[in-house]
Amino acid sequence: MNHIETNKNSWNQRVETHFHSKFYDVPGFLAGQSSLNEIELTGLPDVKNQTMLHLQCHFGLDSLSWARMGAQVTGVDISDTAIKKANSLKNQANLNAHFVAADVYAYGEQSTQQYDIVFTSYGAVCWMSDIDRWARVVAKKLKPGGRFYMAEFHPLIDLMAGYSYFHKTAPNVELEDTYTENCDGSKHEFAVWTHTISDVISALLKAGLVLKSFKEFDYSPYNCFPNMQEKQSGKYYLEHKGQHVPMLYSIAAIK
């Protein structure tokens, strides 16, 4: 089975639902709001006039929010349908950005351009079958001295959902509905892989990056898992036996 094609086809079918959801709030973005969260804005506070590669950009909301802050952004995503939406959104918002339809591995092999910043976030690495290869792409795309920043869901959430905490070569292949509030009950087939935090950090180190920061967070800015509680505005928590579950982690590194 070609898992890359399976995931591409399923993501293509999700784009319209996501584009018209309150979860993504495209009208709010077009009215001037940013789709970025406090975590990544704190992690990357100075992007003006910096070249940025956004891996797995979906239909470009975060890419274009960085562009509004002055970054020169290239967004890459496996879904050609999402990239078409990103280009349309770019024109509607009158922003400059470049979007490429490609999977991460292919882009790493085909493109020779390097960037000041490589960014990825929220539900990205689970689509990577080979985390070492992913890290090599990150390192290859960074200029010497360039910065890598990621904010990602904590793998403990996968364990609580019944997946293995530790990486397995074979993916978890399931029919899933979407995480947005306007889900119509349609299910699409996806293949995902779990990666421990130590797997991710070790892969980046092996690829030659220098770790600058690692943080964990007990909340998510997205209400996208069952039984979450909004205890503070825009901050959603899960509890296990009365204690907060780790929801996110972030990594900053340089080449």
Keywords:
alpha/beta; two-stranded antiparallel sheet; globular; 33% helix; 255 residues; seven-stranded mixed sheet; Rossmann fold
Report what the structure shows.
The protein has one domain (3-156, 164-219, 249-254): Rossmann fold, CATH 3.40.50. It is of the alpha/beta class. The model has no long low-confidence stretch (mean pLDDT 95). It is 33% helix and 27% strand. The chain contains nine helices and 13 strands. Strand 4 (115-121), helix 7 and strand 5 (142-153) form a beta-alpha-beta unit. The chain has helices at residues 3-19, 26-30, 38-43, 61-68, 80-93, 104-110, 131-141, 156-160, 197-206; strands at 51-55, 72-77, 98-101, 115-121, 142-153, 172-176, 188-192, 210-217, 229-232, 235-237, 239-240, 243-244, 248-254.
Largest sheet, strands/sense/barrel: 7 strands, mixed
Beta fraction of the residues? 25-35%
CATH topology label: Rossmann fold
- CATH-scheme architecture: 3-Layer(aba) Sandwich
CATH superfamily: Vaccinia Virus protein VP39
CATH class: Alpha Beta
Name the average pLDDT: 95
In which range does the helix fraction lie? Answer: 25-40%
Helices and strands, in order, run as HHHEHEHEHEHEHEEHEEEEEE
Q: How many strands?
A: 13
Derived from helix and strand composition plus strand pairing, the structural class reads alpha/beta
Q: Largest sheet, order of strands side by side?
A: 3-2-1-4-5-13-8
Low-confidence runs (pLDDT<50, min 5 residues)? Answer: none
Distance between the termini: 35 Å
Query: Can you tell me the number of structural domains?
Result: 1
Shape: globular
Number of helices: 9
**Gyration radius over CA:** 17 Å
